[in-house]
Inverse folding.
């Protein structure tokens, strides 16, 4: 590999017996996480690119990047080996369009597919691909998705209360979800997906705003949350952060998608192939950790998840909550012989 940062490489090597300290830190947007971008194009800083690619160790073969976004990880896989190919998935057409431009120089080594990654097996089957040499996922949303007011994911920009990553599928918006569920269901959802202790108060206030026809835009939603819990920021975190995160996770079925991806992975990754998954909050990481512990299917490459280095954390706030887990697909035979337990 040509552009390997020596420090990162050393950390990955060291991590094989277990380097990174596991933290219980939840992922929350802090003040500096939603930075204004004045670039109208797709600008997203790729997280732990070197670590992801070193874990995959691309060779000749087909890989699948199930969260292509701006194409940062896909590009790194294609650059790492001249005979590597990538099937690049995303549920967001805007992301795929941007990646197509960025990756044009790789020609037919990359194939773009618009689909939710829960359907990765069907997507590969449609391309006539039975198994892949590796799979990577960089979960959650991209910076442009957060930045674009019309998507309604940000409490800083006035937009519709939408939050869908893919608005073309006719799925429920966040506002429709708020209207459909009961106060209790809304509170449970905010508690479960946002880890928000004040979820009951927030749910009541949001429902009241809806009943009073005061819930139209993201700023209305933030106002309803602030009415319930006050404007005080704790640790630089806006009081609307956790509720917005919870609604976004629910609208996009983010956890169900991860479960479907993890259930499909053993069937599509060839024996010896590697899966690398970057998570950004504990709900995601827990699912990945549990799946990789399945004996007879995976062996983890690192005892503990890798985290980003100081330099990356300083330049890209999003990387601070990233956890990378990588596992190699093993055969039942190998496990029976006692090689991987
Ligand atoms: C963090 S970004 C990926 C950034 C990318 N690795 C890069 O370096 O540019 C996550 C991407 O995953 C996509 N995504 C999230 N959940 C998805 C799902 N269930 N199916 C397909 N794509 C999904 C989002 O639309 C977004 O473009």
């Amino acid at each position: 590999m040509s552009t390997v940062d020596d420090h990162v490489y050393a950390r990955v090597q060291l991590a094989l017996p277990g380097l990174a300290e596991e933290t219980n830190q939840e992922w929350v947007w802090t003040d500096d996480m939603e930075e204004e971008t004045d670039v109208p194009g797709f600008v997203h800083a790729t997280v732990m690119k070197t670590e992801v690619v070193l874990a995959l160790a691309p060779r000749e073969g087909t890989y699948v990047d199930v969260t292509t976004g701006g194409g940062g990880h896909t590009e790194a896989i294609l650059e790492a080996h001249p005979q590597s190919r990538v099937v690049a998935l995303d549920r967001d057409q805007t992301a795929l369009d941007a990646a197509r431009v960025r990756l044009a120089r790789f020609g037919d080594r990359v194939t773009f597919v618009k689909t939710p990654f829960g359907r990765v097996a069907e997507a590969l089957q449609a391309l006539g691909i039975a198994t892949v040499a590796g799979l990577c996922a960089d979960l959650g949303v991209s910076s442009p998705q957060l930045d674009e007011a019309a998507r309604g994911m940000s409490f800083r920009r006035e937009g519709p209360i939408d939050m869908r990553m893919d608005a073309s599928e006719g799925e429920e918006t966040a506002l429709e979800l708020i209207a459909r569920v009961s106060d209790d269901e809304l509170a449970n959802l905010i508690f479960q997906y946002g880890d928000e202790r004040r979820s009951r108060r927030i749910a009541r206030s949001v429902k009241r705003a809806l009943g009073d026809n005061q819930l139209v835009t993201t700023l209305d939603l933030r106002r309803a949350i602030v009415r319930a819990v006050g404007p005080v920021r704790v640790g630089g975190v806006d009081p609307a952060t956790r509720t917005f995160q919870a609604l976004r996770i629910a609208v996009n079925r983010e956890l169900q998608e991860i479960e479907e991806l993890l259930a499909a992975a053993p069937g599509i990754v060839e024996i010896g192939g590697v899966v690398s998954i970057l998570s950004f909050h504990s709900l995601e990481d827990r699912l990945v950790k549990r799946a990789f512990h399945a004996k007879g299917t995976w062996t983890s490459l690192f005892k503990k998840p890798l985290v980003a280095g100081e330099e990356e954390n300083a330049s890209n706030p999003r990387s601070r909550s990233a956890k990378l887990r990588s596992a190699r697909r093993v055969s039942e035979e190998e496990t029976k012989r006692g090689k991987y337990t």
Observations:
- Residues 44, 46, 67, 69-73, 89-92, 95, 116-117, 138, 140-142, 165, 257 surround S-adenosylmethionine (CB under 6 Å).
